[in-house]
Predict the 3D structure of the following.
Amino acid sequence: MQICIFTEPQQGASYDTIVAHVQRAEQHSFHAWFRSDHYLIMGEGDGLPGPTDAWTTLAGLARETSTIRLGTLVSSATHRYPGILAVQVAQVDQMSHGRVEFGLGTGWYEREHEAFGIPFPDKRFGMLDEQLAIVTGYWAAPDGAPCCPMSYARSVKSPKCTLTWASCRAPTSWPRSPSAHASR
C-alpha cells in the first residue's frame, strides 16, 4: 500500500513550513506529497503568510527532497497557459529526477479567479480537454511538430518528460473524454 499526503497551503503555510512538512513525510516513507493549486483561502482563517504558487513550491521541494513523489491535486487548467504549464511540470520533473505526479482539473473557485484577475470561462471542461492534449503533446511531439490536432501550439525545444498524469472530470463526462483516463 502506498500512503500519500495532501495539503492546502493556501489556508496558511510558509515555504519553510511546507519544506519541514514534506521532509518529515519523506523521513516517514510516505509515497507522495500533493498540494492544491489554489491561491486564495477558503473558509475561516487568515491564510497568512499568504499564497504560494504550486509549481514554484514544487520546484523548490524537488531540490529539498530525494525520494518522495511531488505533485498537485490538481493544477487548474484556467491558471496557466498550457505550453507554459508543460515547461513548468517538465522542469520540476527534471529537478526532482522524475518524481512528479501531474493532476489537471477545470478550476472551480470563481472568487479566486476574480481576486487574481484570472478569466473564469463558462466552458471550462472543453478547455481542460484542450489543455491536457497540448501539455502532453508538448512532451511527446518532436520539436516543431504540432502538439495536438485541436491546437495552434507547436512543440519547441524544451524539457520533455514521461510522468504520471491524471485529469479530474465530472463522472458523467468520462465516457466521452480522453482526459478522463489516468495513465501511468
